[in-house]
Design goal:
47% helix, single chain, alpha/beta
């Protein structure tokens, strides 16, 4: 178990983000549980983290709202100190075939996945640097950002952008002892059912022949956040059962 500081996990009221927040609490980190509107669910996650013996608080804001991100994250850092780590997990998908894709479907997905990279990380990076101590940033991309996916031109573009942004930020922060890595999940079994995805068809293309679990994604994030990953930066780790 470690005890090196606090990690903000965006989109952690449910699904992959919830699993990450609770795994990090078990690992010995204090956590900031983020949500946009599901405050009750986020508070429940924070309560679970506290039951594991860690400090936890809930921070609700919309990752698409740049001014609000700067205001609330800045105030949280002012009150509690700079974060040791940030896991950028919050995101949004709005699938449609490209010829039928609306402007709103394109803009909302870019805002929630790619603009959010800037909105969340820009207010936290300099406080992390000024800590003069190791730090960890982990972003969540997707298999769609690696290989593209039918009906997800917007999502694939945003998640590919997250990979590029993460790699560039890793170069800027490496000498500060702050690592930046990206995790790219494939087909993961979550409460957000893949109701519009041809799951059986996708499973045929996955060598492992099954969906992944949120805990399996959280385990990879746990390693990247750990002190043992100090020499791992600018990497993209796919958690997809061998899907290429």
């Amino acid at each position: 178990m470690t005890d090196v500081g606090t990690v903000l996990v965006t989109g952690s009221s449910r699904g992959i983000g919830r699993a990450i927040a609770l795994r990090l609490a078990r690992d010995g980190y204090d956590v900031v549980v983020h949500c946009r509107s599901r405050v009750e669910e986020a508070e429940a996650v924070a309560a679970e983290a506290r039951a594991l013996g860690r400090r936890a608080r809930c921070l609700p804001f919309d990752v698409c709202d740049r001014a609000r991100c700067a205001e609330l994250i800045g105030a949280d850092i002012e009150q509690h100190g700079a974060y040791y780590g940030v896991v950028c997990n919050a995101g949004l998908a709005h699938d449609a075939a490209f010829p039928a894709m609306s402007e709103e479907a394109w803009d909302s997905v870019i805002r929630a996945n790619l603009d959010a990279f800037y909105n969340v990380l820009q207010p936290v990076v300099m406080p992390m640097v000024r800590r003069r101590a190791p730090g960890r940033i982990v972003t969540l991309s997707s298999v769609s950002g690696l290989i593209g996916n039918r009906g997800q031109v917007n999502y694939s573009a945003a998640k590919a952008g997250v990979i590029g942004a993460s790699k560039a930020l890793a170069v800027e922060l490496a000498k500060r002892g702050i690592t930046v890595n990206c995790v790219a999940p494939g087909l993961i079994e979550t409460d957000l059912a893949h109701e519009h995805a041809p799951v059986e068809e996708i499973l045929k293309a996955i060598p492992a022949q099954r969906m992944g679990t949120v805990e399996e994604v959280a385990a990879v994030v746990s390693f990247l956040v750990s002190p043992g990953a100090a020499y791992v930066t600018r990497q993209v780790i796919a958690v997809n059962g061998g899907l290429c």
